[in-house]
Amino acid sequence: MFKKKEGIPRVEAPRYKARLVAKDFTQVEEINYNEIFSPVVKHCSIRVLMVIVNMYDLELEQMDVKTAFLHGELEETIYMQQPEGFLEDNTKVCLLKKSLYGLKQNPRQWYRRFDEFLVKADFGRSNYDSCVYMMRRNEKVILYLLLYVDDILMASFDRQEIQKLKKILNDEFEMKDLGNAKRILGIDIMRDRNKGELLLSRQGYLRKVVEHFRMKDSKVVGTPLGHHTKLSIKQCPQSDEEKSKMEGTPYASGVGSIMYGMVCSRPDLSYAISVISRFMPNPSQVHWQALK
Questions:
Q1: Cut 0.85: pTM above it
Q2: Mind giving me the DSSP string for 232-289?
């Protein structure tokens, strides 16, 4: 986080308390940070990569960046109160020279740091997804890399190319090698190379959702939302008493949880989710039963 030779630099405390940042909720926009948006790989990009991997029988491996946010370079001048147990002089503060967990701009600064590194390593960024990178040789893609914050997927025809990339990443960042990719963003990757099959599943995640919302005893159906199910705004609670009965029902949370399971691995749930999500502002027991 700080250069060991220089130690933690200290400067005289400035007059403006707004520049003293200990936690993110004390940061002031345009003083302690400007832009904070950071892209992550799209789920559709993950699906496309899996298709390519299975179609051309590519090697697929995974790595994780340890303490990723500590690698970011700060653009703003940020002062921080001396950490507990390190207090030496009440009139002095710490000048942050590197990104620190808790800052609002952490994700963006980490992405920019990683992006600059990959570009220097001869990777090209996709025009359709800012977190998809490709290395080309003789106009042919030899390496794919997908980034979701600190999770990395790598695919190549040649395992040696992946090993070279791992070494480059290990030399620059502190990495954890996870070997063959088996799970990404809660999605299980099940692959049988002999049969030429690759399956993406969120069975484990959806099982937890079912248990959390006590849906284990719900009736099993062949389609997520049968044609006989008629939902409308007229079924929404009208009186205050009806609305109060639904206040403790986690309708929005249930819709969101199932929606996350729908993305990337269960597109068959799309229509049902689009229907039941229309009533989130004022759901009724009828809508809740349809969700279950």
A1: no
A2: -GGGS--SHHHHHHHTT--HHHHHHHHHHHHTTT-GGGHHHHHHHGGGTTS--HHHHH
Residue whose token pair is 């990339």: 165
Is 231 inside a domain boundary? yes
Same domain for 119 and 174?
yes
Distance CA 25, CA 92 (A): 21
CA-nearest of 143, 117, 139, 144 to 129 is 144
Which amino acid is located at 209 in the chain? V
Q: How far from 277 is each of 136, 207, 251, 268, CA to CA, in Å? A: 43, 21, 9, 15
Domain hosting 144: range is: 43-69+106-194
Q: Would 281 be classed as within a structural domain?
A: yes
Are 62 and 128 part of one and the same domain? yes
Task: Name the maximum alpha-carbon separation found in the chain.
Answer: 73
Q: Residue 2: which pLDDT band, with cuts at 50, 70 and 90?
A: very low
Six token digits for residue 152 = 């990395």
